[in-house]
Amino acid sequence: xxxxxxxxxxxxxxxxxxxxxxxxxxxxxxxxxxxxxxxxxxxxxxxxxxxxxxxxxxxxxxxxxxxxxxxxxxxxxxxxxxxxxxxxxxxxxxxxxxxxxxxxxxxxxxxxxxxxxxxxxxxxxxxxxxxxxxxxxxxxxxxxxxxxxxxxxxxxxxxxxxxxxxxxxxxxxxxxxxxxxxxxxxxxxxxxxxxxxxxxxxxxxxxxxxxxxxxxxxxxxxxxxxxxxxxxxxx
Length: 235
Ligand code: C5P
Fold this sequence. Notes:
alpha/beta; 13 strands; 7 helices; single chain; Spore Coat Polysaccharide Biosynthesis Protein SpsA, Chain A; binds cytidine-5'-monophosphate; 235 residues
């Protein structure tokens, strides 16, 4: 059995700055989005991808058309995103082929995480297949000491980091459970920053699967340089 993945790429990337959305910046001859899609589609257990785009995205056609030839060797479908991450992922879930059922496990992966390792996908898929009701996400324990900021940037407290993890993607859940969690978030206007949070708001406790620290989320120009460096080392 193979799994579909929804890739939200409808964000405008306000934090990064610049004219081209960050997922369309080029690194080593390919866009960030293309690196991300190639990493996912290169895994034998991934069936296909739904890319969620901003309405009227002018950059996607170039990505999907490699000089008249299909640019991908597995199905890549598109959906139009909404004004929140939850709405965008929901739109992607609705676009999944009809043979994907409510109990089927699906993944969600940020367009802005191009450095996904096959071994991390292996680990997540294995862990969640063993606990399909619970679902799970890739993450890593926090390494730095964490301070809570108080007045005028003074330290109000030091947080106990032993139980704190960073949340990455992919995140993997049963399609029906994730859809209803996201619909609930959307109708209540709750702000979520990942899919696990939507599940948690329904009382779920998804698994934390330890992944590689270099599963970068491209957020600033320095992250691009870091990704370029990692690619160079891989070659
Ligand atoms: O803004 P942030 O970096 O957290 O976005 C994570 C991912 O979600 C990005 O790939 C972005 O394109 C996507 N997104 C989306 N629709 C939104 C907001 C964000 O598809 N409305």
